[in-house]
Amino acid sequence: MLARGVDPGEYKKIQHAEKLLAAKNSFEAVAREWFQVFLSKKSESYYERVTLYMEKDIFPYIGRSPISETEPPDVNRVIQRIAGRGGAVAYAPT
Q1: What phi and psi, each to the nearest 5 degrees, are found at residue 66?
Q2: DSSP output for 39-92
Q3: Bigger pLDDT: 32 or 2?
Q4: Tens digit of each residue's pLDDT (9 = 90 or more) over 67-83
């Protein structure tokens, strides 16, 4: 790195900052922020149930994906996975 004129310490700091930014803008982080606003008006049991469903069925598959790169086909694959195992999928057509 030094031979290419790159300071390894500075490079490491930049990589760390980019990781933190990516984590803040992940599908999961944005979903949890949304939960705080939307689900705060719901009962505690509803909030817990929705959170559990997301943690079990959604976040493991697309939770770490940057929200800006999460596309409808990504979400659709998760929905198909849930439906394929016989799980209930709530769908509201647009």
Answers
A1: -60, 135
A2: GGGS-HHHHHHHHHHIIIIIHHHHTTSBGGG--HHHHHHHHHHHHHTT------
A3: 32
A4: 888 899 999 999 998 88
In CATH, which superfamily holds the domain spanning 2-84? Tyrosine recombinase, N-terminal domain (1.10.150.130)
Q: Which residues of 33-47 are buried (b: 16+ CB within 10 A; e: fewer)?
A: eeeeeebeeeeeeeb
Q: In the chain, what's the furthest Cα-to-Cα distance?
A: 59
Distance CA 19, CA 42 (A): 33
Q: 12, 8, 31: which is closest to 20 by C-alpha?
A: 12
φ, ψ for residue 86, nearest 5 deg: 90, 10
Phi and psi dihedrals of 26, rounded to 5? -80, 160
